[in-house]
């Protein structure tokens, strides 16, 4: 909101015929540490105004300025312009606006008409859902929500690992160890058991590998009998995945795994690369030589005719562009695959595909732990479901300590689940995604400090104020009695949210929104401790309630953008 006024102001005082669209994204809005002072700073060089040096322009703008209802002063400070706006102006416009926009407050239409494909999670059937998949799920979901809040149309894809020789091995294993009832009941776990067992056998008996290879060869040839079993594994696994994802509030528009890219399609890619003279024979394998770009030799087809993970990604990208005509495609995958995506994008570029530059790898660091897995107090977990169960259990134990409050909660298990999951998500998204972090059960589930439970607590506190007030407020409320500095600070913070959404949509860094949510929650806490709604004159009570409602809406929107369900009670 403030960003809008700044834009308007700079446009007016800078140059009457300057293109607004140029100025708009260039304003650097530095938030004062103690919100509410009405100050913010614009760096003149970022305005890219034509003419003399930036400090002269700043001085010039300062001298042209006359105070109005919105801005009380402008001071030039070197290349910076220090604006002081009128907090009353902001307050009177902002609160009604937030109340009427409600769940859409903070959204913008900058991505309107554009399609973004967001590929994330992408676990491998029959293998553990490891921490990399967990991070991809959380961050990918955030990216989807944030792009949508910026007006984009999104299509979310789960690129399941569901093809390759290992699925031949899995089928051989299933024929030996499989159990139809177990498969139905919990396909992910059962297939993992089978996979571990047959891998064990195969390490002693090499002929099992031949069987697996033959089985997979039949799958590739389209043999219906071999495919039937495999299809069953995939279908049942997807049912189970859907169930688990819904617990973390994640859904996919399409499950389009590696298997969707047929041998024929891959052959087409190889032929095309040949046609473009991009392939070269290297020890029997077909490679694209990327040494000129310090990306080594990328194997496309092995000497035995087998295709690679990379070749499949080339085929998939081309097929996706055909199908969705995307304006941008995001791959949310750990930084261990940086090199893979560099190779992929370079190959698409060398193929002369104009949309190659629209592909983006959004990477992230690792979750560190002793053995590379997440460990609960009870031991190592390899399944997402176990992690979710473990946080739910811990949260329930914490909640039970306050018996009176616990008795009031309608569905304590669901609430515990949500708080626990919020804990995981906030821990995951709290720092820049490229940073590694340690999975810390105690810290992420604590109610003090910058944790998920703390954010949920801030939200429920605001909900409880609204519940306890015996009246409602709407957008026409008069908020002019809110003159206290703590209220101005909260207004200031609420006003930042649209800028935060915009920035998050560009950087695709969840911590942008997480840090904001904490900042807002602290401003809320300062305010509710000082300004009560209960037992106040009606006019004051209504204005404060309106402020808290605006804060609750904003915090709720921020949490939803992160993929978190804001709680009303806990
Ligand atoms: N299934 C892969 C893995 O678990 C991740 C897939 C990433 N996406 C891609 N288009 N390569 O490592």
Automatic annotation (TrEMBL):
GO terms for biological process: arginyl-tRNA aminoacylation; mitochondrial translation. Residues 455-570 form the DALR anticodon binding domain. GO terms for molecular function: arginine-tRNA ligase activity; ATP binding. The keyword Transmembrane does not apply. GO terms for cellular component: mitochondrion. Keywords: Aminoacyl-tRNA synthetase, ATP-binding, Ligase, Nucleotide-binding, Protein biosynthesis. Coiled coil: none annotated. It catalyses: tRNA(Arg) + L-arginine + ATP = L-arginyl-tRNA(Arg) + AMP + diphosphate. Its EC number is 6.1.1.19. Belongs to the class-I aminoacyl-tRNA synthetase family. This is arginine--tRNA ligase. It comes from Physocladia obscura. The chain holds residues 241 to 810 of 810 of the full protein.
């Amino acid at each position: 909101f403030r960003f809008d006024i700044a834009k308007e102001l700079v446009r007016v005082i800078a140059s009457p015929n300057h293109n607004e669209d140029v100025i708009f994204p260039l304003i650097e809005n530095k938030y004062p540490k103690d919100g509410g002072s009405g100050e913010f700073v614009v760096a003149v060089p970022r305005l890219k105004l034509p003419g003399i040096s930036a400090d002269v322009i700043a001085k010039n703008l300062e001298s042209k300025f006359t105070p109005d209802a919105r801005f009380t002063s402008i001071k030039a400070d070197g290349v910076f312009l220090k604006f002081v706006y009128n907090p009353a102006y902001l307050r009177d416009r902002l609160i009604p606006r937030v109340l009427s926009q409600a769940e859409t407050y903070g959204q913008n239409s900058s991505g309107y008409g554009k399609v973004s494909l967001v590929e994330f999670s992408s676990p491998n059937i029959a293998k553990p859902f490891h921490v990399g998949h967990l991070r991809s799920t959380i961050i990918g979901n955030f990216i989807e929500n944030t792009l949508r809040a910026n007006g984009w149309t999104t299509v979310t894809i789960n690129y399941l690992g569901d093809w390759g020789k290992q699925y031949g091995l899995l089928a051989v294993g299933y024929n030996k160890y499989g159990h139809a009832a177990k498969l139905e009941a919990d396909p992910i776990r059962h297939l993992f058991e089978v996979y571990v067992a047959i891998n064990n056998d195969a390490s002693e008996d090499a002929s099992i590998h031949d069987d697996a290879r033959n089985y997979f060869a039949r799958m590739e040839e389209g043999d219906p009998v071999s495919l039937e079993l495999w299809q069953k594994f995939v279908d049942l696994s997807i049912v189970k995945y859907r169930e688990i994802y819904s617990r973390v509030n994640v859904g996919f528009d399409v499950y389009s795994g590696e298997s969707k890219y047929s041998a024929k399609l891959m052959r087409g890619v190889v032929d095309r690369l040949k046609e473009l003279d991009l392939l070269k024979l290297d020890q029997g394998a077909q490679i694209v030589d990327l040494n000129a770009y310090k990306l080594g030799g990328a194997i496309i087809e092995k000497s035995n005719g087998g295709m690679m993970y990379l070749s499949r990604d080339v085929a998939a990208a081309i097929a996706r562009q055909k199908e969705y005509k995307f304006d941008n495609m995001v791959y949310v995958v750990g930084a261990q695959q940086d090199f893979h995506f560099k190779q992929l994008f370079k190959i698409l570029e060398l193929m002369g595909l104009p949309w190659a530059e629209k592909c983006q790898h959004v990477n992230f660091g690792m979750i560190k732990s002793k053995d590379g897995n997440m460990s609960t107090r009870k031991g190592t977990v390899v399944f997402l479901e176990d992690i979710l169960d473990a946080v739910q259990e811990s949260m329930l134990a914490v909640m039970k300590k306050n018996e009176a409050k616990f008795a009031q909660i309608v569905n304590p298990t669901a609430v515990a689940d949500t708080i626990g999951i919020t804990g995981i998500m906030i821990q995951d998204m709290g720092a820049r995604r490229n940073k590694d972090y340690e999975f810390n059960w105690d810290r992420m589930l604590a109610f003090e400090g910058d944790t998920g439970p703390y954010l949920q607590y801030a939200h429920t506190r605001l909900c409880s104020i609204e519940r306890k007030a015996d009246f409602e407020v709407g957008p026409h409320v008069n908020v002019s009695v809110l003159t206290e500095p703590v209220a101005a600070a909260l207004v200031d913070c609420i006003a930042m949210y649209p800028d935060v959404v915009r920035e998050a949509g560009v950087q695709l860094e969840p911590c942008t929104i997480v840090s904001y949510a904490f900042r807002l929650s602290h401003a809320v806490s300062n305010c509710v401790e000082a300004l009560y709604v209960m037992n106040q004159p009606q006019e004051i009570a209504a204005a404060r309630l309106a402020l808290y409602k605006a804060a609750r809406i904003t915090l709720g929107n921020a949490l939803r953008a992160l993929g978190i369900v804001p709680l009303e009670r806990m």
